[in-house]
Design a protein that fits this description.
This protein is an alpha+beta fold. Among the domains are: 44-137 and 173-361, Glycoside hydrolase 38, N terminal domain (7-stranded beta/alpha barrel); 477-581, Immunoglobulin-like, CATH 2.60.40; 623-659 and 693-852, Distorted Sandwich (Beta-galactosidase, Chain A, domain 5); 883-988, Immunoglobulin-like. Helices cover 22% and strands 28% of the residues. The strands form twelve sheets. Strands 24, 25, 26, 27, 28, 33, 36, 39 and 40 form a nine-stranded antiparallel beta sheet that branches. It has a nine-stranded antiparallel beta sheet with strand order 29-30-31-32-41-38-37-34-35. A hairpin with a 3-residue loop joins strand 24 (589-591) and strand 25. Helix 12 packs parallel to helix 14 and helix 13 packs antiparallel against helix 14. The radius of gyration is 29 Å and the shape is globular. The structure holds 2-acetamido-2-deoxy-beta-D-glucopyranose (2 copies) and zinc ion. Zinc ion binds at residues 56, 58, 180, 430.
């Protein structure tokens, strides 16, 4: 701690107060006094207690988002957001001193739409006067462990856009408010900083971390959230709230609470004013001991509170009056209605230095055996569906722009991207993609995504019809992962359009269910494409059940141009003999021009992996195991494993089978080794001819529970890489963080759960490395993982549990469905690459983006009409490899939102970790760019108007603030990890 911060604050504040306070009575001529100007004045020589009335409204959890809005199903949980907003507005009008903050725009939007214009005016006035203030303001309060940055940025943009368009500047939140997410990602902080927030408040962090921070008064800090962006671009002031997000004990006055109201008529029974005041002064003074300034914050509210806001406000009015009345008796406690931004402003005025944090807040434990690391994997099918939906949404957005107005209203009817955008925004909530909701709510999230995709399909069909000049009907086959697609199964001639949402050309394997045995495949230029027919595997037949009957799969590789499509024609040729049956012996190896994998002939397991270009080889064995979930009958703690919590009852996982039964195919397009471990675990190890990654396609489930043991299934890769306890995981799909077993960078960890306490979220990749070898695993959804032994990396794939874990959801995580009544089967892919550490990012960065923003296949039956345009790219040329086109979507009739991203960290690539310049004028093939304005990351403020509080870290190494200038208005330079957001005015050529 720097010496200056030890100075007593009182004299400092006295000195500054004259300069900086904004007395309320100085009426400004401007009628709008929202934001920092609307804060109540404070007293520089007293302890100021900022009371923040608030409600925490989950965008779905025990009830669906719409059930919560209406207050339906109150038998499950008493909660109705429409009544909360009705009641709060009513109560705010009764006393201009009162304040309220609102957070989740998904709910506010639903409510606003239903209000009369006079009510809308009233609310606008409250917002303009800072009496009702929006904080956070995204569509929801996103989960931080299992979300991808692309979807987080989108959901924030959606909510903040509504607020800006409805309320203008006064609707722009100054503070990020993530009071409930179960651990905090560094990338989220970086994103918030780039969205212009002045600070972030959170409620949950590891209990050991908290107790150290309380002792050292480090609950308020400066988070440096990027190792690549120049400070203070990704610096975010972060405050840890004192009681999670609840009021101090004894002061909960909601109808959901049971604390005594303030009884202030001395003529009546149980007069308690003195008691309340004394208890409050005690609570305030003890809280002040663990914070640095003479300002403290109290969150007066909790889950779905304020449905009858009169209860809260009536008591808070009295609390303020009676506590402040004691000032005449020498009390130095000053209580006021406040908001997080008003509190933040006081911290900023204190002009202190703050401890600097550069790691993240994972994993989160609230007790010795209570690590919230299970939800990193919970509901793996929903997690994958959410990820595919994001990919589909990006494609839908892009095709809405490229296809022009006819994409929304065209040959196939009316389509839109908004339904899917809002469904995706809801799915980012911290009880949605996290997997911590009740089963019926999980079903509702999936249903919303499916409905959104229906709307997008019409748009995509319209757009592709307009771009290709062919209005042949388009079929979508969303079940290709289980080899189901009625059109390809029966058609003798069809075409496949491959739309690529990336700004670089991709090569992609296509596998289509078919019943014939020989096909001719031609590309857009009429050239013949190598294709092969292989039999559908036993595992695939098992998982698709009676949803499809194809015997074979047609496999070929396609190439799709940047931001465009390519059409391939497929026609049956004279049937050949059926594909040769699989080899039943273990092959010694499979190999293409980049990679070679070998197998152990005795076990059928992988035994090594080589990169043939760099001439490196590692020992690699891989197998499947399950942790026996704790049922809570345990002398150390009664905590069972559940939707949130991972708690194995032993540190040694059970092996599912030491050996695999093996079948293999080696063709010119693909080589695969199909491994069968148990009726509920199988895998295909696959290498396509042009792939730089080895694919492991796992199929896990239904997890057997007849032995009454909950199971948490992992796959583990064991290598001879010398990892010295280090491993690496990504943060929300962007920057990679170093992890170390049984270690936290910012405090002395007492490890109490040797497995669960070492788990971290993996959103898109994890790796292990030493000086010469790096093994990277790219995942297709968010999962939990760890490295428990040196050289080893494990990833949790699926969980099935028999007990609730006492965090409120009230159900064991035991997924089943109509098709899988005996338990869910989940299938996914891991992509393995082996590289030199200094160049590994050159492979895994593009690889991960191809998995996240995957090509969309659509099908048309029969012959294509002549003059169909078989190939199209929306770009004049592919963007440089370092640049990812993150957003390309229609903003309004004239303009388009564009986000360009540098996708490399500053240290990770000799080739690509350099600034790169893109010319916006020369970007698009069918659009003229007429004008450009730069925005903040969330597109709710012009970049040149974005001003944030500056904060001084304790260890200031004074970053050299180089002023970067673009070469010209049209040529924009991106530095490592930078995302730049533009509104383009465009004209169609
Ligand atoms: C903040 O404190 C520093 C010294 O610690 C001082 O130089 C600076 O002027 C102060 N800023 C304000 C706005 O008072
Ligand atoms: C915010 O909304 C206003 C209308 O309320 C609009 O004029 C302005 O362009 C919007 N700002 C941004 C940055 O989009
Ligand atoms: Zn919540």
């Amino acid at each position: 701690m720097a010496a200056s911060s030890r100075l007593l604050l009182i004299p400092l504040l006295l000195f500054f107060s004259g300069v900086f306070s904004f007395p309320l009575d100085q009426k400004k001529t401007d009628t709008t006094t929202c934001g920092y100007q609307s804060c109540h004045s404070t007293k520089a020589d007293m302890l100021n207690v900022h009371l923040v009335p608030h409600t925490h409204d989950d965008v779905g959890w025990l009830k669906t988002v719409d059930q919560y809005f209406y207050g339906d199903r109150n038998n499950i949980q008493h909660a109705g957001v429409q009544y909360i907003l009705d009641s709060v507005v009513d109560q705010l009008l009764k006393n201009p001193d009162r304040r309220f903050i609102y957070v989740e725009t998904a709910f506010f939007y639903r409510w606003w739409k239903q209000q009369s214009s006079s009510m809308q005016q009233t609310v606008t006035q409250l917002v303009n006067e800072g009496r009702l203030e929006f904080v956070n303001g995204g569509w929801c309060m996103s989960d931080e462990a299992t979300t991808h940055y692309s979807a987080v940025i989108d959901q924030m943009t959606e909510g903040l856009r509504f607020l800006n368009e409805t309320f203008g500047v006064c609707g722009r939140p100054r503070v990020a408010w993530h009071i409930d997410p179960f651990g905090h990602a560094r990338e989220h902080a970086s994103i918030f900083a780039q969205m212009g927030y002045d600070g972030l408040f959170l409620g949950r962090l590891d209990y050991q971390d908290r107790s150290r921070r309380m002792k050292e008064k480090e609950q308020e800090l400066l988070w440096r959230a990027s190792d690549s962006l120049t400070p203070p671009m990704a610096d975010l002031f972060t405050g840890i709230l004192p009681n999670g997000y609840n009021p101090p004990e004894g002061f909960c006055w909601d109808q959901l609470c049971t604390d005594a109201p303030i009884r202030d008529d001395p003529d009546l029974e149980d007069y308690n004013v003195e008691d309340v005041v004394l208890r409050f002064l005690h609570a305030a003074n003890s809280q002040a001991l663990v914070y640095k300034t003479n300002h403290i914050i109290m969150t007066m509210g909790s889950d779905f509170q304020y449905e009858n806001a009169n209860l809260w406000y009536k008591n808070l009015d009295k609390l303020i009056r009676y506590v402040n009345a004691q000032q005449t008796n020498g009390s130095n406690v000053n209580v006021l209605y406040s908001t997080p931004s008003c509190y933040l402003q006081e911290l900023h005025r204190a002009n202190l230095t703050w401890p600097l944090k550069e790691d993240d807040f994972f994993p989160y434990a609230d007790n010795a055996h209570d690590f919230w690391t299970g939800y990193f994997t919970s509901r793996p099918a929903l997690k994958r569906y959410e990820r595919i939906s994001n990919s589909n949404l990006q494609t839908c957005n892009q095709l809405e722009v490229l296809g022009g107005p006819t994409s929304r209203k065209g040959h196939f009817g009316k389509g839109d991207s908004q339904t899917l955008r809002r469904a995706m925004a809801v799915a980012q909530h911290h009880d949605a993609v996290s997997g911590t909701e009740k089963q019926h709510v999980a079903n509702d999230y999936a249903r919303k995504l499916a409905n959104g995709w229906q709307h997008c399909q019409v748009l995509v069909s319209n757009s592709l019809a307009s771009l290709s000049g062919s209005s042949a009907e388009r079929t979508y086959c969303d079940s290709l992962n289980i080899s189901v697609c009625p059109l390809t199964e029966s058609s003798k001639k069809f075409s496949v359009s491959v739309y690529n949402p990336l700004a670089q050309t991709v090569t992609w394997p296509v596998r289509l269910p078919v019943n014939r045995t020989a096909f001719r495949v031609t590309d857009a230029k009429g050239r013949s494409v190598d294709s092969q027919v292989v039999p559908v595997s036993r595992a695939t037949q098992g998982v698709r059940r009676n949803r499809g009957f194809a015997m074979n799969e047609l496999v070929f590789q396609v190439q799709a141009p940047p931001l465009g499509y390519s059409m391939y024609s497929v026609s049956v040729v004279q049937d050949q003999p059926p594909p040769s049956p699989p080899e039943h012996s273990v092959p010694t190896e499979i190999q293409n021009k980049y990679l070679k994998a070998t197998f152990d002939p005795d076990t059928g397991l992988l035994s090594s992996l080589s990169n043939l270009e760099t001439k490196q080889t590692i020992k690699l064995s891989q197998n499947f195991y399950w942790y026996n979930a704790s049922d809570g009958n345990n002398k150390e703690s009664g905590q069972p494993s559940g939707a949130y919590i991972f708690r194995p009852n032993s540190s040694t996982p059970n092996i599912i089978s030491k050996t695999a039964t093996v079948e293999s195919f080696q063709t010119s397009v693909v080589q695969e080794v199909r491994q069968w471990f148990a009726p509920w675990v199988s895998q295909v190890v696959r290498l396509y001819a042009d792939s730089k990654a080895l694919e492991l396609e796992w199929t896990v489930g239904p997890l057997p529970i007849s032995d009454e043991q909950g199971k948490e299934v992992i796959t583990r890769l064991d290598t001879n890489i010398q990892t010295s306890q280090f491993f690496y995981t990504d943060s929300n799909g962007r920057e990679v963080l170093q992890r170390k077993k049984d270690f936290r960078p910012t405090w002395q960890l007492k490890q109490t759960e040797p497995i669960a306490g070492n788990y971290y979220p993996i959103n898109s990749r994890a790796f292990i490395k030493d000086d010469v070898d790096q093994l990277t695993v790219v995942t297709d959804r968010s999962q939990g993982g760890s490295s428990i032994q040196n050289g080893s990396l494990e990833i949790m794939l699926h969980r099935r549990l028999l007990h609730d874990d006492y965090r409120g959801v009230g159900e064991p995580l035991d997924e089943a469905s109509e098709i899988f009544p005996e338990g869910l089967v989940v299938r996914g892919r891991l992509l393995l690459s082996l590289d030199r550490p200094a160049s590994a990012a050159d492979t895994h960065r593009p690889l991960a983006q191809e998995v996240v923003f995957q090509p969309l296949l659509t099908f048309t039956d029969g012959e294509l009409t002549p003059n169909t345009q078989l190939e199209f790219s929306g770009l004049q040329a592919a963007l440089p490899p370092a640049v990812h086109l993150l957003t390309f979507s229609q903003w309004d009739d004239e303009s388009v939102l564009l986000r360009l991203e540098h996708q490399f960290q500053s240290w990770e690539s000799k080739l690509y970790s350099h600034p790169v310049t893109v010319n916006l004028k020369k970007l698009f093939s069918t659009l003229d760019v007429l004008g450009v304005s730069e925005l903040n990351l969330s597109a709710n403020q012009w970049k040149d108007e974005m001003k944030r509080f500056d904060w001084t870290p304790q260890k200031e190494e004074t970053p050299t603030l180089k002023k970067f200038e673009d070469p010209s208005v049209w040529e924009v330079t991106l530095r490592p990890m930078e995302i730049r957001t533009f509104l383009l005015r465009v004209d169609r050529r």
